[in-house]
Design a protein that fits this description.
3-stranded parallel β-sheet
C-alpha cells in the first residue's frame, strides 16, 4: 500500500492504523515522490522482488 499526503500528521495516523493491522505501507509527501516510489516498485516487480501496490491512498489536493 502507498500513502500519499502533504500533511505528515495524516500520514502518521494512517500508517499507525495500518501498522496495527500488520499492513506494510510506503509513504510519500508529494505526488512527485509518489511517482518515484511507483517507478522503483515497478522495477522491483519486473525483477520479481516485490508485488505491485494494490491500493494507493492519495490526498487529492496537494501543492505539487
Amino acid at each position: 500500500m502507498l500513502i500519499v499526503d502533504d500533511d505528515n500528521m495524516n500520514i502518521e495516523v494512517i500508517k499507525a492504523m495500518l501498522d496495527s493491522l500488520n499492513v506494510i505501507s510506503d509513504t510519500a509527501l508529494s505526488g512527485n515522490a509518489a511517482l518515484s516510489l511507483i517507478e522503483l516498485r515497478l522495477e522491483a516487480v519486473y525483477r520479481g522482488e516485490a508485488p505491485m501496490y494494490k491500493l494507493i491512498l492519495l490526498d487529492y489536493s496537494m501543492p505539487e
